[in-house]
Amino acid sequence: MNALAATNRNFQRAARILGLDSKLEKSLLIPFREIKVECTIPKDDGTLASYVGFRIQHDNARGPMKGGIRYHPEVEPDEVNALAQLMTWKTAVTDIPYGGAKGGIGCNPRDLSISELERLTRVFTQKIHDLIGVQRDVPAPDMGTNAQTMAWILDEYSKFHGHSPAVVTGKPIDLGGSLGREAATGLGVIFATEAWLADNGKSISDHTFVIQGFGNVGTWAAKSIFDRGGKVVAVSDITGAIKNPNGIDIAALLKHKETNGNLTEFQGADVMDADEVLTHECDILIPCALGGVISKENAADIRAKLVVEAANHPTDPEAHEILSKRGVTIIPDIYANAGGVTVSYFEWVQNIQGFMWDEEKVNRELKRYMSRAFLDIKAMCKIHECDLRMGAFTLAVNRVARATLLRGWEA
Asked: Which residues are responsible for catalysis (predicted)?
């Protein structure tokens, strides 16, 4: 099942549980606006290349739309649509005043030089500048993009609209980025995990972890686990996978990754088959890579008792059913990985106020938002007698539906 079908299914289940009016349900499902633009740039060798850029703006009932921009060869409308919708529910779960959006360009950033990436980003911004904005739609980095990409968008947007640091988040610190933003998604995953563990009288130091995807989110999650006394027994990324039943020295692994980049050449662990990472023995599995990695084919073999969805849509609905029947708890993506957008909200607030916070305040506020959201989800689980995924979806859909009705959606 693709990401859009899975997201729609979860939404529709939540809508039925809440007893939403069918017309309102349909209205909440349809995106506010879909943008598709051609981006033609001169390559470094003088030839012209054309790329297709997308921006899906899903909902603005609770505030400006918010969502990442990804540069990836497989960027296509259905996936962008699903991720935009997920952002609407994600921002509502943590109760920050945003709606959802998502964008991207179908390209492989590794095949482009820095100057080509800059030209592509600026052309894309020129095509959508009048449809994004501080109070309209606020982009952020995603797969294949970074703080530098946001700096180019900020600069290009400001040529049309004047200096507007709050138009993007995930910017370099020197241009108004927030301290703590880089670690936010990974740290938010750990705060979500800690909230569930505390609710069950446990702590991170009592558990073993497997992290699939050792990129930005995975490295910060692993570092946080290591610092709290937890054992990371296996990790993987695009270079391969490694394991150590006694726990990997994450501090040493991060140093190795900086200098070498290849996980499989790390001396403090054994090389393993990357396909076996998800089914490796552990207490808590954290998928941090692409969507759909836990499917009906491998769900029965997963040995973790808790899955924390740090990636977007890592678990197919069929796999979710299999895991639930086996008694595996899943902390859903729309809550678990909401730390990034929450700290993006803090960055936006700081930019608007022109008053910056220190990192300690950012992390303290992030923990407060993630802890409060968990209690809100638990309350919905109790009311509707459902699992955490439906608890999060009913919480989010209910908040967006109420905001939509209060604004007078049929007016």
From this structure: 102
Residue 336 CB neighbours (<10 A): 31
Buried b (16+ CB within 10 A) or exposed e, 260-278: eeebbebeebeebebeebb
Report whether 146 belongs to an annotated binding site: no
Q: Is 295 annotated as a binding residue?
A: no
Q: What residues are paired with 177 via a beta bridge? A: none
pLDDT confidence band for 6 (50 / 70 / 90): confident
Residue 120's Cβ-count burial label (10 Å; 0-12, 13-18, 19+) is: buried
C-alpha–C-alpha distance, residues 356 and 331, integer Å: 32
β 65-72/137-141 pair status? parallel
Nearest residue to 113 (alpha-carbon basis) of 43, 39, 40: 43
Name the nearest CA neighbour of 186 among 12, 337, 289. Answer: 337
Q: Apex CA 250: angle with CA 246 and CA 252, to 5°?
A: 105
Question: Does the annotation count 367 as an active-site position?
Answer: no
66 is in an annotated binding site: yes
Q: Give pTM, 2 decimals.
A: 0.93
Q: Which tokens is 178 given? A: 């927030």
- Are 240 and 274 in contact by the 8 Å Cβ rule? The answer is yes
Q: 339-396: per-residue pLDDT in tens? A: 999 999 999 999 999 999 999 999 999 999 999 999 999 999 999 999 999 999 999 9
Catalytic residue selected from 23, 26, 43, 102: 102
Cβ contact 65:99 at 8 Å: yes
pLDDT digit string, tens, across residues 32-62: 999 999 999 999 999 999 999 999 999 999 9
Which two three-digit tokens encode residue 397?
A: 């859909």
Burial of 110 (0-12, 13-18, 19+ CB in 10 A): exposed
CA distance linking residue 230 with residue 11, whole number of Å: 34
Q: Is 231 annotated as a binding residue?
A: no
